[in-house]
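Note to self: keep these together.
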Amino acid sequence: MTSDEIVRLVSAGTLQQAHAWQAALDAEGIRCRVVGEYLTQGFGGGVPGMYPEIWVYGRDLDRARAALQVHEATGRQEQS
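Structure:
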């Protein structure tokens, strides 16, 4: 993988989750894109088995994974 290659980071369960993750990555200065967001629209809730994904540059992959882990841990702590 090259640093300029765009790679899939994660699949989100919902479009809202994908955009929350996108916002968290943006806040860390990590460029990303939600791919497949239109799969969740128009078919009465989406296409079964198809979920929006977050894609990042290969050079940011490890940092993006770490940022999402922190984001998810913080969200779980706030819910308790």
